[in-house]
Design goal:
This protein is an alpha/beta fold. It contains five helices and eleven strands.
């Protein structure tokens, strides 16, 4: 897979290193000469150019990229790169870094963004995830379909503790994608049971998040007389 990364700072270089280790082809683009540090990621291609300019993106052969990552420290630049990648070059997957959470609402399909990654929001979510049991934590927002990757640690008092996955009536527009149990990562099957302490990862429509949290967190009162 060929990946172009706009922004060769610490974030861009770190992403490039991970992708190269996984066998992908990576191009780093930055307009600042001081950011071109070939010796730090020698396996990558490097291009000294302004990623907001069509001529630069032509030189980068963006049309051959499977993924473009807008990883600069400037939200305006990341939005422009995302829009150009999607509309001018038809890049199938565009991932954009959000530096200021106040700008997160802009990072959607109207600007060509498939996935927006907000570092402040993600760090906050990880803190919440570490201290919260029974609370839904939003980890990542997907622009298409208004869906989010959310996590909830199943509390002891959950009504669903001990219930098999296939017996749960999940809300519409939600999908249980992973169960993390201790050091194990489980792909859920209908016969798997939900156990207290399980970390459950869902892709869910934002409108269904409250319903999902209520389903997993609250033990229903026994109304039988």
């Amino acid at each position: 897979m060929r990946v172009a990364i706009a922004g060769a700072g610490a974030v861009g270089r770190s992403i490039a290193g991970e992708l190269l280790e996984n066998g992908h082809e990576v191009l780093l683009v930055d307009k600042a000469p001081t950011a071109i540090s070939v010796e730090r990621v020698p396996q990558a291609e490097w291009l000294l150019a302004d990623a907001c300019e069509i001529t630069s993106l032509d030189e980068a052969a963006l049309q051959r990229c499977n993924v473009v990552i807008a990883a600069t420290g400037d939200d305006k630049v990341n939005l422009v790169v995302s829009l150009l990648a999607k509309t001018e070059y038809g890049v199938p997957r565009v991932v954009a870094r959000v530096n200021n959470p106040k700008n997160e609402w802009l990072f959607n399909e109207s600007w060509g963004v498939d996935v927006a990654v907000s570092t402040p929001r993600l760090m906050s979510a990880l803190v919440e995830e570490a201290v919260s049991v029974g609370d839904l934590v939003r980890l990542l927002r997907f622009s298409h379909g208004d869906a989010n990757l959310v996590e909830l640690t199943l509390p002891e008092e959950s009504a669903l503790a001990g219930t098999q996955v296939g017996d749960v009536e999940w809300p519409e527009d939600t999908s249980l994608v992973t169960i993390i149990r201790g050091t194990r990562v489980l792909t859920p099957s209908r016969d798997d049971s939900l156990e207290p302490g399980d970390e459950l990862l869902f892709v869910a429509a934002q409108a269904r998040e409250e319903q999902l949290e209520d389903l997993l967190s609250v033990r229903r009162e026994d109304t039988a007389s």
